[in-house]
Specification:
Layout: H1 3-24, H2 28-57, H3 60-99
Helix pairs in contact: 1-2, 2-3
Keywords: Membrane, Transmembrane, Transmembrane helix
Pfam families: YtpI (PF14007)
Protein name: YtpI-like protein
Length: 100
């Protein structure tokens, strides 16, 4: 199953990309938005890593550890998604306010 290592690698690279962009951004709203995007990919990394570990080892211990990682990864991605949508709305409010 080559798909899970690819997904792990892609999510890790995108997580690092967004974290670097947070450091480079000057606007606090932009930093919060980019940080929320990085949380999505961190959650994806943990989620896919958990699936890959169970598929690779298929033991009871890897099942329990994988379930914990699945829950943590899904929660992290969900919270990042919600924060990302929130900051998108804040961008729209800021743009509307700056145009008037």
């Amino acid at each position: 199953m080559i798909i899970f290592p690819i997904l792990i690698l892609v999510s890790l690279v995108l997580y690092i990309y967004y974290k670097v962009m947070v450091i480079r951004a000057r606007d606090p709203l932009t930093q919060e938005y980019l940080n929320s995007r990085s949380k999505i990919f961190l959650g994806g990394f943990v989620f896919f890593f958990a699936i890959n570990q169970y598929v690779f080892y298929q033991t009871r211990l890897s099942l329990f550890v994988g379930l914990v990682f699945l829950i943590l990864g899904a929660a992290q991605a969900r919270l990042g998604w919600k924060a990302s949508r929130h900051y998108q709305q804040e961008y729209k409010k800021q743009e509307a306010h700056s145009q008037t």
